[in-house]
Amino acid sequence: MKRLNTIYIGAIAMAVAAGTVVGYARDRQSRNNGDGQNSRRSQRQNGDGNQTNGAAGRGQEQGRRNSDLFGGDNPAPGNHRAGRNADNNGPRQGGTDRSQSDRESRRDSSKDSLTRHNTANGYEETSASGRVRTRAEKESDGEHVSKFDVTGRKQSEEVDRTDGSKQVSRFDATGRVRQEEVDHKDGSRDVSNHEFGRDGKVRATETVKYDVHERIVNKTVTKTVNKVVIVNHYDRGRFGFVYHPVFVMRPFVRWYDPYWYTPAGVVIVHPFHYHWGWDSYGWYHAYYGPYWTTYDVYPTPSYWVTDWMVASYLQDHYEAQMSVDQARAEAQAAREEADKAAAAAQTAQDQAEISEAKAAQAQAELQARNAEAKLAAAEHEQEEAGKPNPNATPIDKDTKEALKNQIDQTIAEKKALAEQAQSGKDPVLPDVSKAFADPKHIYPVSKVISVTSAKDSSPAGNLSEGDLLKVEPGQDDKLKNAGENDLITMRVMTSKGDDGEVPAGSLVNVSVHDLQDFDSEFRAKLDAGLNAADQNQDAFKQGATTGT
After folding, report:
1. What is the enclosing helix (H) or strand (E) of 178?
2. Do residues 273 and 547 touch, judged by C-beta distance below 8 A?
3. What is the separation, in whole angstroms, between the first and last Cα of the chain?
4. What is the pLDDT of residues 476-485, one digit of tens each?
5. What does the alpha-carbon distance between residue 314 and residue 182 come to, in Å, rounded to a whole number?
6. Which of 17, 74, 157, 499 is the most exposed place for a label (fewest CB within 10 A)?
7. Closest to 342 measured CA to CA, from 518, 82, 150
8. Which residues pair with 194 in a beta bridge?
9. How far apart are CA 69 and CA 89, in angstroms?
10. Digit-coded pLDDT (tens) for 160-172
11. Sequential DSSP letters for 144-170
């Protein structure tokens, strides 16, 4: 699978989204007329707050946390994070695009030129050319205030609910809700970002909860995988978000079935075959063989879970990419937006609106060219799916065996934590420092990031879901005293060989924050794998008995 101009496209999309958020916050602050609490809310939407969360400044922290699932800017020096298929990423806070910000500033400065008139259940504000820029409507759940850009595209909708809370929805160019924010009456808030899959539908939602003091409390990630909804919870730890499992003993009891383990925990081998049924899945055809192959025979369930885990990472990578149909639809939408902006510039009645329309046209034209480039990349990717990739370094037998051993070890740790919880104790959740203590630990990459070379800090390329990393030896002191934004030298063990990806064998800088994300996702996926194995235990035994 190939990726074209990932970093460049990602930067454009993030800039547009950030500018939209900033402009919205200014309009909201203007309506608030200096109200203390609402002004504070407007400030934090801009990332301008002075409060801190740990070592990171509040604006910086918010910008990063709201993009954990979807990529985004990383404030750590020398580590620049790139989004995947940029338009698939939710809006980011804490950053601005100069052209978009200037456009919103001009709009604010020309606010007096908008004409306000009452409607049947609210009011509208229109420009000199008659275009609706603000629409307020009273509904049963509260007042809805929608903002529109110069082309008529809906940018945001704020609902002042009757219970005292506020909900803000922010839209992309195709009309989909990218981000939702709920400000509760007590001053806490929830920020949700949506990621869209190959079919253009929401496939993952990340919700970050903030308390009344602007401190991050936790996050929840909801994903749909093979029509199954998976919900994972994470606590805010010293290095980032730490996976918080739901402690249930049943999968572990079934896992340590006497059929597979002696009372002393010694493995009993009962080789079995298993038919996965993946032949009709696009991600399987894209990666089977060129990067990864399943075991022919499974000696024990842990081998099965290893294949399940690798497949899960590769499926995530595939499903987050843009399909040809989706790329074509987004290219068409971007081109239509450029045409609307050109028409708006022709009919605008004042200089501010003319300037805004021309800037919107230039931005839409750039987005259209990028969308067309992504379409070409998606078509090329479709043609190359499943073919040998000379740039790929597949997962070899020894690496896969090491990953299997790591899975066995982590399952034993999870069982011990579950037993503690079962006995009424409060288990201490392991963070990435536990992985740092094991020099053999493998870190499967769980999101797209761009990294720099450990040699000279120059751009090294991208890492993506399913790539495997290992800590380069000789960093013991750094690992023991690591901070969230510190950079660790990692060796790339395997690579799918996509365009722009870091070749295997390279030494790169990866932040502790990102390594914490990788470790948390590994533990979350393993829990899902254990549940899947629990549901298939009877099939494992039947396969071992019949040899089918």
Report:
1. strand 177-183
2. yes
3. 33
4. 999 999 999 9
5. 33
6. 499
7. 150
8. 205
9. 9
10. 999 999 999 999 8
11. EEEEE-TTS-EEEEEEEETTS-EEEEE
Is residue 358 classed exposed, middle or buried when 0-12, 13-18 and 19+ CB atoms within 10 A define those classes? middle
Which region among 315-319, 392-396, 519-523 has the lowest average model confidence (pLDDT)?
Answer: 315-319
> Tokens 């000199």 map to which residue?
128
pLDDT 10s digits, 221-264: 999 776 778 899 999 999 999 999 988 888 888 899 999 999 98
Q: For residues 34 and 31, what is the distance between their CA atoms, to the nearest angstrom?
A: 8
Please state the length of the chain.
Answer: 548
CA dist., res. 88 & res. 326, Å (int): 10
What is the rounded distance in angstroms from the CA atom of residue 132 to the CA atom of residue 201?
29
> Residue 70 in contact with residue 206, Cβ under 8 Å?
yes
Helix (H, G, I), strand (E, B) or coil at 367: helix
Give the DSSP per-residue string, 179-226: EEEEE-TTS-EEEEEEEE-TTSSEEEEEEEEE-TTS-EEEEEEEEEET
Report the distance separating Cα 224 and Cα 244, nearest Å.
19
Instruction: Quickly state the pLDDT bin for 112 (edges 50, 70, 90).
Output: low
Maximum mean pLDDT: which of 44-48, 80-84, 350-354: 350-354
Q: For residue 90, what is the DSSP state? A: P
In angstroms, the CA 150 to CA 337 distance is 11
Angstrom distance (rounded) from CA 110 to CA 434: 56
Amino acid at 505: G
- The amino acid present at 305, given as its one-letter code, is V
Distance, in Å, from the CA atom of 533 to the CA atom of 531, rounded to the nearest integer, reads 5
Q: Taken in order 452, 46, 60, 183, is the CA torsion positive or negative?
A: negative
Contact between 272 and 298 under an 8 Å Cβ cutoff? The reply is yes
Query: Cα-flanking dihedrals φ and ψ of residue 106, to 5°?
Result: -65, -40
Percent of the chain with pLDDT over 90: 53
Single-letter amino acid code for the residue at 192: S
Q: What are phi and psi of 487, to 5 degrees?
A: -100, 135
Beta strands in 343-483 (DSSP E): 443-444, 449-453, 459-463, 468-471
In terms of Cα–Cα distance, which of 127, 121, 163, 118 is closest to 147?
Answer: 127
Half-sphere exposure of 62 (CA within 13 A, CB side): 29
Structure tokens at 220: 């929840």
- Stretch 348-375: mean pLDDT: 84
Q: Under 8 Å CB-to-CB from 157, ≥6 apart: which residues?
A: 144, 145, 146, 147, 168, 169, 171
Q: pLDDT tens-digit profile of 493-510? A: 999 998 899 999 999 999
